[in-house]
Amino acid sequence: MYYSENTILYLDGKWIKAKDASVTLFNQSLHYGNAVVGIELGNASEFSSLKERMIEYDFYGEYLNDKPDLFQFLV
After folding, report:
1. I need a surface site. Which of 15, 20, 24, 68 has the fewest CB within 10 A?
2. How far apart are CA 15 and CA 7, in angstroms?
3. Alpha helices in 1-75 (DSSP H)
C-alpha cells in the first residue's frame, strides 16, 4: 500500500485523507505524477546520448516534438 490510514494529500485545492480521495482515470498519477520536461541543450548533437541515458534510467516517455497533436493537451 502506498499510504497509511494517516496519510493526507492535496487534491482539488484541499487537504484530505488519502482514503477519501476519489481519482478516476488517472489513479497512478496520484502517486507518481505526470510531467512534461523541457530540455535545452547547448548542442543538438548531444540529444541522442541524453535520450539514451533517460531511457536507461526510466525517465523517458514520449518525445513531443515528433507528435505535435499532443501539444494541444498542454495548452
Report:
1. 24
2. 10
3. 27-31, 47-56
Residue type (1 letter), 53: R
Cα distance between residue 24 and residue 34, in whole Å:
15
Identify which of 66, 49, 69 has the alpha carbon closest to the alpha carbon of residue 57: 49
**What pLDDT does residue 43 have?**
92
Higher-pLDDT residue of 12 and 43 is 43
Q: What is the DSSP letter of 43?
A: S
CB 59 within 8 A of CB 50: no
Q: What is the DSSP letter of 3?
A: -
How many angstroms separate the CA atoms of 75 and 70, rounded?
A: 10
- The structure's pTM equals 0.46
Burial class (CB in 10 A: 0-12, 13-18, 19+), 58: exposed
